[in-house]
Every structure is written in C-alpha cells, then in structure tokens.
Amino acid sequence: MLYIVGLGLGDERDITLRGLEAVKQCDMVYIEAYTSLLSFGLSSNGLSTLEKLYGRPVILADREMVEEKADEILSAARASDVAFLVVGDPFGATTHTDLVVRAKKLGIAVIVVHNASVMNAIGICGLQLYRYGETISIPFFTETWRPDSFYEKIQSNRNLGLHTLCLLDIRVKEPTLESLCRGKKQYEPPKFMTIKTAIGQLLEVEQTKGESVYSEDTLCVGFARLGSEDQIIVAGSMRELQLIDFGPPLHCLVITGNTHPVEEEMLDFYKIKRD
Ligand SMILES: C[S@@+](CC[C@H](N)C(=O)[O-])C[C@H]1O[C@@H](n2cnc3c(N)ncnc32)[C@H](O)[C@@H]1O
C-alpha cells in the first residue's frame, strides 16, 4: 500500500490525525524534499523532529530519487506499507501525479491524505480562489536561459480579469554544469527565489515584450512562509513589493486581475500603510 500524505504548510504539527495514523502504521516513510520546504527546513534537525513525532526513521527523497529511482519506493510499497510525505498537499505540485499513475499501473493500492496547500492558503489575502486563472512558475534566469512563456499566461489571465498565482523557483540538489561534464555529480547550494527577484524578472520580460500586460504599478500580493507563525503577506504595486524584505523562503506572488469591492476591502488590511 502506498500512502501519499500531505503535511500542510507550517511545521510538523500540521499533519492531520488521519495522516499521522497512516505514517505510524507504515514500514517505510519517505519525505519529498524538492518542491517545498517545511518551516523548520529540511536540516537533519528538521528531520529528527519529524522522526520523533512519527516514532520511525524518515528517508529524504530528493528529485533524483523520486524521478529516477521511483522503482525503489514502488517496490517497497508492493511488499509493505509505505508513506510518501509531501509538504502542503500531494497534488499542490504537478510532479506527484506521476508516482500515483505508476503505482496504479503496477496494481499498488494508493491512499491519499490531503492537507492545506499554497494553492488554497493564498485565499487569506481576500482574493477569491474562484477568480484565478492558470498558475505560473517563474524559473531562475541564467545568462543563457531566460524562458518567458509565463508572460502569455499572465496576459490570458489578465485579459479575462483573473488573478495569477506565481510559484517561484526552488533549486535543491541541482548538479553543477562542470560536474555534469566531468561525469561526477557535485551539487549547487540550495536556492529559493525571492519576491524581489521574481518581480525583477517579470519586469524585464515586460520590457522585452512591450505588450503592457502589467507594469511597476500593477497591484500584487507577496506571501512569505504561508501557514507559519511568522508568515508575511503584503499587498502593493510591483514597485512597492520589490523594496520589501520578505525574509527567508518560501515566497510566492499573486498578480491581481480585476478586483471586486469585497476583495479590495480585504486587501486593504495588507496594504503598506503610509502616515
Ligand atoms: C510546487 S509548489 C507547492 C508545493 C506544495 N505541495 C503545496 O501543496 O503547497 C511550490 C511553490 O509554492 C510556493 N510555496 C509553497 N509553500 C509556500 C509557503 N508556505 N509560503 C509561500 N509560498 C509557498 C513557492 O513559490 C514554491 O516554490
């Protein structure tokens, strides 16, 4: 049996009772460590906090393991009960559907335990979840790679008056280019995109494309560490948000579409107050 268990957004206490019961009865417990980050981080300390609560060892599954060595997880799930833990909700990231499909094709029973996700926690700012268009991901630009397909998606959303959730790049355990050439993998230090970097890249693309999809004056909402005790939520123009230090990861950004009066009333609570 494969249990896919959402951990929620804050810390180890956000697992549901149903999720905790599942984890406690499993023979092996993996935690996915590349599409998110628990508020206490995935340090050895963080893992031992989880291990203490669950009363069993937790195996860190990085992108290589989940994408290249999923067989290991699946063959364990064929023979015994295995839990695969995901920060947020298991389906708040596109990557985990593949594991479910593979398990089902092998005839392994899958049980999903849901939890809060960034996809619904953004509702706290007052913008209606019903009024969002396609979610976009903003990858880190490099000297030679500056993908901008998100621009057309924001354009389509804004043409329909819809809000856009921008998920910001997470680079954990990425092999360095030199090590790939040499055939022996060495890894870059982890990198998490900030709201400031995301807005910088968005404005650069707007400048190149010049179709006035958004500007420095466009109203956005920046979120940091949603679901944690020190979460930060600020509404303001791109220009204003670029000047704010949102602190440690994770960050995400919403570009507003047309706003309804009730949405505006709620957003006012998060606007930068000037005396
Ligand atoms: C693949 S998504 C979501 C993953 C997770 N499974 C979920 O359901 O929330 C990962 C991205 O969501 C955003 N994100 C995730 N958790 C967040 C949090 N607590 N606060 C702010 N942004 C967050 C970040 O931009 C991050 O790069």
From TrEMBL:
Pfam families: TP_methylase. It catalyses: 2-[(3S)-amino-3-carboxypropyl]-L-histidyl-[translation elongation factor 2] + 4 S-adenosyl-L-methionine = diphthine methyl ester-[translation elongation factor 2] + 4 S-adenosyl-L-homocysteine + 3 H(+). Its EC number is 2.1.1.314. CDD domains: DHP5_DphB. Residues 1-241 form the Tetrapyrrole methylase domain. InterPro entries: 4pyrrol_Mease (IPR000878), 4pyrrol_Methylase_sf (IPR035996), 4pyrrole_Mease_sub1 (IPR014777), 4pyrrole_Mease_sub2 (IPR014776), Dphthn_synthase (IPR004551). The keyword Methyltransferase applies. GO terms for molecular function: diphthine methyl ester synthase activity. One of its GO terms (biological process) is protein histidyl modification to diphthamide. It is an enzyme of class 2 (transferase). The keyword Coiled coil does not apply. Keywords: Methyltransferase, S-adenosyl-L-methionine, Transferase. S-adenosyl-L-methionine binds at residues 9, 89, 92, 117-118, 168, 226, 251. Pathway: Protein modification; peptidyl-diphthamide biosynthesis. Belongs to the diphthine synthase family. PANTHER family: DIPHTHINE METHYL ESTER SYNTHASE (PTHR10882:SF0), DIPHTHINE SYNTHASE (PTHR10882). S-adenosyl-L-methionine-dependent methyltransferase that catalyzes four methylations of the modified target histidine residue in translation elongation factor 2 (EF-2), to form an intermediate called diphthine methyl ester. The four successive methylation reactions represent the second step of diphthamide biosynthesis. This is diphthine methyl ester synthase.
